[in-house]
User: Which sequence fits this backbone?
């Protein structure tokens, strides 16, 4: 593995992790917003 390939893979992995974390946070935010509306 050369540095360029390793860097590309690392960039993709980091992007996926950020996307997943943001999706989970957004889902929790939506859920809490909906529960507040019900009250």
Assistant:
């Amino acid at each position: 593995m050369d540095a360029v390939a390793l860097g590309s893979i690392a960039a993709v992995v980091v992007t996926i992790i950020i996307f997943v974390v943001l999706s989970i946070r957004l889902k929790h935010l939506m859920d809490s917003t909906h529960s507040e509306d019900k009250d």
